[in-house]
Design goal:
237 residues; alpha/beta; Rossmann fold; 7-stranded mixed beta sheet; two-stranded antiparallel sheet; 7 helices; 9 strands
């Protein structure tokens, strides 16, 4: 499948700031360079315990990082749906119907308002509860129906992250590889670097070497040098 990204409008669902870059930073760069529109819907962020010298990162720090990353990738817009500690790492405690309504209609970047042609979301088998809740809500929001009444994006892809390999159930490998050039991978790595509170030295699932290694592996599987892997959930031709 060959895509002309120049005419596409991408909507990326990112449970937390950095998931969008980890999962589809290369594709965002590639599509934007081709002339596409790119929007990012963050679901939540809060003060987070981590492995930094201080032992935590604040929501304010991470909002600052988002602004830098947005400028780096030249996003057309982004939005934070449910900020604050009451929601961060607790999306699984919210009713699915509320999350689905937000995704489908209520957010400024909702599917009904934005009418994206391509939607990208986390894989539902991630160990992280916020990833699972986001994936399920988007999946429900994109349920089959009459496309004269509800918008149906033509392409729906679940992106992968290296940490997703920690799973309790077997999952098929990605069935779509997006070829990246070195420039695109470098843009992805630079974007992750701008998430200073979340990037780590190797060995870590968010280290530069891990991201490059996964890109080399996915590229090799498609007979090219570099790639990003996705699971196709819908492809209307």
């Amino acid at each position: 499948m060959t895509m002309d990204w120049s005419q596409e409008r991408l909507l990326v669902y990112s449970p937390h700031p950095d998931d969008e870059t980890l999962g589809c930073g290369g594709l965002m760069h590639k599509a934007k360079r081709a002339g596409a529109e790119v929007y990012v819907q963050f679901m939540t962020v809060g003060d987070t315990a981590d492995q930094s010298p201080r032992g935590f990162s604040t929501a304010q720090e991470r909002h600052t990082e988002i602004k830098r990353v947005a400028e780096h990738f030249h996003w057309d817009d982004w939005h934070m749906a449910l900020p604050g500690d009451a929601n961060h790492l607790r999306l699984d405690g919210l009713p699915r119907v509320d999350l689905t309504r937000l995704v489908e209609q209520e957010s400024p970047l909702s599917i009904a308002r934005l009418k994206p042609t391509v939607v990208l979301l986390p894989h539902r088998t991630s160990y992280n509860q916020d990833h699972q809740a986001t994936a399920e809500a988007v999946h429900t929001a994109l349920r089959p129906s009459d496309n004269r009444l509800r918008h149906h994006p033509r392409l729906v892809l679940a992106y992968e992250e290296a940490a997703d390999q920690w799973r309790t159930e077997p999952v098929e490998p990605p069935n779509l590889i997006v070829e990246l050039q070195e420039e695109g991978l470098s843009a992805k790595l630079q974007g992750m670097e701008l998430y200073g509170s979340q990037s780590h030295r190797h060995p870590h699932t968010r280290s530069e070497l891990t991201l490059r290694s996964l890109a080399v592996l996915r590229g090799m599987q498609a007979g090219v040098a570099l790639g990003e892997g996705y699971h196709v959930l819908r492809h209307l031709v």
